[in-house]
Amino acid sequence: MINNLTSRRRQRPHIVVIGGGTGLPVILHALRRKNADITAIVTVADDGGSSGIIRNYINVVPPGDIRNVLVALSNTPEIYKKIFQYRFKSSDQFFSGHAIGNLIIAALSEMNGDGIFNAVQELSQLMMIDGHVYPAANDPLILNAEFTDGTVLAGESEISAADKTIKRVWVTGVDGEEPHAVREVVDAIMEADQIVLGPGSLFTSILPNLMISNVGKAVCETSAEVIYICNIMTQKGETEHFSDADHVRVLNHHLGQKIIDTVLVNTQPVPDNYMDHQKYDEYLFQVKHDFNGLRQEGCRVISDNFLELRDRGVFHNGSQVVEELMRLTSRPLSWNENEFN
Question: Which regions span the lipid bilayer (predicted)?
Answer without folding.
Answer: 12-31
